Amino acid sequence: MGGIFAALSLRREDVAPLVVEGLKRLRFRGNDCAGIAVVGDDGLRILKERGDVEDVDRALGLSKLRGWVALGHTRFSTHGRPYSDNAHPHIDCRGEVAVAGDGAIANYEELRDELAMEGHRIVSRSDFEVVAHLIEDGLAKGETFLKAFAAAVERLRGFYVVAALHRSGTIAVYTSKLPVYLGIGDGLYTVASTHTALYGAAREYVEVLGGEIAVVSSSGIAILRPPNLLRVERGARRLELDPRLVDKGGYPHHMLREIYEVPYALLRTIATVQARFLEFAARLLNGARNIFIVADGTSLHAGFVASYYFTELAGVSPIVVSAAEFPLYYIEGVGPGTVVVAISQSGETGDVISSVYEAKLRGATILGITNYVGSKLAMFSNLYLPIGAGPELAVPATKTFTSTLALLYLLALNAGRLAGKLTPDEVRELSGRIERLSDELIRELPRIDREAREAARLLAECRSGYVISRGINYPIALEGALKLKEAAYMHAEGMEAGEFRHGPVVLVERGFFTVFILPVERRAAEATYPLIRDAHSKGATVVVIGPSEELAAHDLPGHKIGVPTADRHLAPIASSIPLQLLAYHLGVLRGLPIDGPRYLTKAVRQ
Predict the structure, then answer these.
(1) Which of 264, 308, 368, 464 has the most crowded CB, counting CB atoms within 10 A?
(2) Helix, strand, coil % (nearest 5) of the chain?
(3) How far does CA 10 lie from the centroid of its chain?
(4) How far is CA 444 from the centre of its chain?
(5) What is the side-by-side order of every strand in the sheet holding 90-91?
(6) Are strands 158-166 and 97-105 parallel, antiparallel or unpaired?
(7) DSSP assignment, residue 209?
(8) pTM of the prediction?
(9) Are 373 and 386 in contact, with CB atoms under 8 Å apart?
(10) Pairing of strands 290-295, 319-322
(11) Where are the domains of the chain?
(12) Which residues have C-beta within 8 Å of that of residue 185, sequence separation ≥ 6?
């Protein structure tokens, strides 16, 4: 993942300072590497290095580069660790084209091998470098830059935005799904990953939609639809922004922005993880003597969901345990043949790292699941799989949780295929349902947000409550209760619905809330309906989360938040989003520091 910002001056003025400023506004999309390519009187030049854009600017003088066209990038590492070679922009062998990207190219390994066999010099582990060489091949055949660019993106699979700068001063951009924004200013054209990054540089902007190519040159801007490159007519909108929201992508808090990124983060996860590493990881699981899933907090809840995935899809039964408990009570069961699946979105969680260390000393194989490829967990693991959700700045985890679920689901599907429980066609079909769920969430999120905001107003005066579910959604109840604590400072207890009448019901009264997540399993759902009515009859504030169709089909009391109907194993992803939004809006109503709750840090190292 990363942030892209480009600029072209019709007056041939230096634009590097503007591009650096734009990259600073995109740091929430990644900040472990930064770089700029410029076209000026001395041709195409690139400067890039590991580090935050401000640090790289001070070290290399990015903003002092001379050139009237520039393409900049700030990076979050998903393919290749955060080193200078992996920083964007990348350049082709002839020095004619610079390329920067956002997202992930799913088939980059086969393209890289093909290009290397043809004699191209591949210098990085970044997936987007292959695009520069593909364009180079087209130019060598006599194609125009635009045709070579269009032919290159035609060969790519995945979820991505790619921008290319030719030494002639023309910029081309393609997006597979995410919108990209063209800014129109006074003698200036700009391109940015978010419209908020255009603030101060553009009066108007034009949105580039999925499947479209944008071309920016001294002749003007154009939007084209491949493969025939037919022109798309789309009017410009006036750029009107609250300056206070610019650095958060137009949202009041990073947490809300990251919840809205959940559907796109799911697509990034699918595109980021490479098939051969999923295969290796699946073989580890199937050949293990015993399996532990070790994690803390939100990642532990993802591990609980994964235990359903592994058991039902692959026929392996892991032991899920808190990383704080693992070295004290479970380490004696670890030895050669043990696989420890260690989950930490930061890759720096102290208890997880300690558990990994102790397990490795006893001969265990470590399979790391982390969002940060340069983390300790990635380095200590025998094999790691990247979550690929992109950077998450708010302390309450949202998109990293749902993307972790998606990654563990893909792992379980591949383990099931190797175990003979699923055919390759079934794995492809089931994997494809993540993308369909993503599309539904993109459409439904604004409505879910409104319903969650209304529910928050109802819960605002409650002193505490339960989040209740059963089956594969029970860990989501635990996660929802954690989010209410983190973001809203509200005491909440995650509960298995079958336990509700075995003691906990005595606390239910007016001023107490019960949030029910309808179980996926039909028998469990039918057993939960009476509990909802019981809590309501006792005066509790009731919120019910479930598939919109099911909520419409049953006369249940309380405030309802509908989610898209999803397969059993994807239901936890859909169900978690209303809880994240509910916690967020409660925190806003209470005037709390949403992104940085007191006493909490993103990575608990000790």
Answers:
(1) 368
(2) 45, 25, 35
(3) 36
(4) 18
(5) 90-91, 97-105, 158-166, 171-175, 212-217, 220-225, 230-231
(6) antiparallel
(7) P
(8) 0.92
(9) yes
(10) parallel
(11) 2-239, 262-422, 441-589
(12) 201, 202, 203
Amino acid symbol at 401: F
How are beta strands 230-231 and 212-217 bridged, if at all?
unpaired
CATH homologous superfamily of 441-589 equals Glucose-6-phosphate isomerase like protein; domain 1 (3.40.50.10490)
Phi and psi at 321, nearest 5°, equal -145, 145
When the candidates are 3.40.1400.10, 3.20.20.60, 3.40.50.10490, 3.10.310.70, the CATH number that belongs to 262-422 is 3.40.50.10490
CATH superfamily, domain at 2-239: Aminohydrolase, N-terminal nucleophile (Ntn) domain (3.60.20.10)
Q: Beta strand pairing status for 43-50 and 33-40?
A: antiparallel
Residue 14, CA distances (Å) to 9, 68, 169 in order? 7, 5, 13
Q: Are 563 and 575 in contact (CB under 8 A)?
A: yes
Asked if residues 583 and 597 have their Cβ atoms less than 8 Å apart, the reply is no
* Angstrom distance (rounded) from CA 122 to CA 28: 29
pLDDT confidence of residue 138? 97
pLDDT of amino acid 80: 64
Q: Do domains 2-239 and 262-422 have the same CATH topology?
A: no
Under a CB-based contact definition with an 8 Å cutoff, are residues 83 and 106 in contact? no
- Residue-wise pLDDT for 110-149, tens only, equals 999 999 999 999 999 899 999 999 999 999 999 999 999 9
pLDDT for 79? 67
Provide CB contacts within 8 A for 105, sequence distance 6+: 111, 127, 128, 130, 131, 156, 157, 158, 160, 271
Question: What is the per-residue pLDDT across 189-222, written as a single tens digit (0 to 9) for each?
Answer: 999 999 999 999 999 999 999 999 999 999 999 9
**Cβ 90 vs Cβ 126: under 8 Å:** yes
Helix (H, G, I), strand (E, B) or coil at 578: helix
Calpha distance 185→191 (Å, rounded): 11
Task: Say which residues have a Cβ less than 8 Å from residue 589's Cβ, sequence separation at least 6.
Answer: 456, 457, 460
Query: How remote is the C-alpha of 539 from its chain's centroid?
Result: 39
Is 503 exposed, middle or buried (CB count within 10 Å of its CB: 0-12, 13-18, 19+)? exposed
Residue type, 172: A
Please write the tens of the pLDDT for every residue from 358-390.
999 999 999 999 998 889 999 999 999 999 999
Query: Tokens at residue 310, please?
Result: 């592994």
Say how far apart CA 184 and CA 172 lie, in whole Å. Answer: 16
Distance CA 108, CA 151 (A): 15
